[in-house]
Specification:
Layout (H helix, E strand, L loop, with lengths): L7 H11 L6 H13 L1 H18 L1 E2 L6 E2 L13 E8 L2 H9 L5 E5 L17 H8 L6 E4 L5 H24 L7 E4 L15 H9 L6
Parallel strand pairs: 3-4, 3-5, 5-6
Antiparallel strand pairs: 1-2
Length: 214
């Protein structure tokens, strides 16, 4: 039986689609066939949109978000509170928080987490850009919205140490300097979660982060 059922152009399309998250070889074939069957409605508009994305999309020099403008739409939104900065690992985390309409704040994308085993150190992340933004004195609170993983928490501790060192140095120069408040996301039992299905780490964090019932 032949390994290929279509020409090289279609096979290349399938291989590229198979690299996307959540798509395997079979799913990629189904998607490719659907696009081909709907050439005018889907394939051509998708091709045009991707060509435009290649030309227009860029990384925001301020926060690390991806947009067709630099600074990005979020950074140029005058309605946002510039004193509140949410630090996230990846652009996908930023978009998730925006979908939930959690806060009308500014953002900063680190571009990953510290991982010595993978050779990822502080210089590989956008931590320097974060310290440069906090050094301007406009930010009053930083929310470390990193994942509850070993790498995420290690990164959060490192950033906290850097911010505290920065604040200590600033207080020597200016005795009236007010240090930035540093907070993190609450971790524990999710809404709708049943205790019997949760892991021990989640239960432990939920118990430690307990609060008065209201």
């Amino acid at each position: 039986m032949a390994n290929h059922v279509a020409g090289p152009e279609i096979e290349k399309l399938i291989k590229l689609l198979a690299r996307l998250p959540g798509l395997g070889q079979r799913s990629a074939r189904r998607v490719a066939l659907h696009l081909i069957k709907n050439k005018d409605q889907l394939l051509i508009p998708l091709s045009d949109a991707m060509a435009t994305a290649v030309d227009k999309i860029q990384v925001c020099e301020t926060c690390g978000n991806v947009d067709s403008a630099n600074p990005c739409t979020i950074c140029t939104d005058a309605r946002r509170d510039p004193s509140l900065l949410v630090v996230v690992e990846d652009v996908s985390d930023l978009w998730a928080l925006e979908r939930a309409s959690v806060l009308n704040a500014a953002y900063h994308v680190l571009g990953g987490t510290l991982s010595p085993l993978d050779g990822i150190g502080p210089d590989d992340l956008n931590i320097g850009g974060l310290l440069a933004r906090t050094d301007k004195g406009e930010i009053k609170e930083i929310i470390l919205a990193v994942n509850a993983t070993v790498e995420g928490q290690t990164t959060a501790h490192y950033i906290t140490d850097q911010l505290q060192a920065q604040a200590k140095q600033a207080s020597v120069i200016n005795p009236d300097f007010q240090p930035i408040k540093i907070s993190q996301l609450a971790h524990g039992v999710p809404i709708g979660g049943e205790l019997d299905y949760l892991d021990e780490g989640t239960l432990l964090q939920a118990m430690r982060s307990r609060k008065e019932f209201s």
